Amino acid sequence: MAGGAVGAVLRHATVIVLARPAGSLPLGTLAVNVVGCAVAGAVIAWLTLRAADAAWRPFLQVGLLGSLTTFSAFSVDSLRLFESGATGLALANVALNVGLSLCAVTLGYLGLRALLA
Known about the structure:
Blueprint: H1 2-17, H2 27-49, H3 56-68, H4 71-83, H5 87-116
């Protein structure tokens, strides 16, 4: 629960800081998804390679990262772009969120794994 509170506050603050004009790419959601995935990769590496206390997993993965990253906001942002006729931006939003998030989780995992090896 505590991790969820921290992640939710961080997500809300990021979306406010990266506020966007209507009809533009939702950078706040993209930022929390990509950064959250990079941190998730690092957390997985840390928990796996250091056999860290399993009690940290729910706090970090489910709580903090689960509330920081947001598939539902990404989906709503994409739908709103499609509905407003901004098909190109909507498709870019989908490609960027999925592509960059997958790259970020991989880099976070491999990066921390290399540091811990």
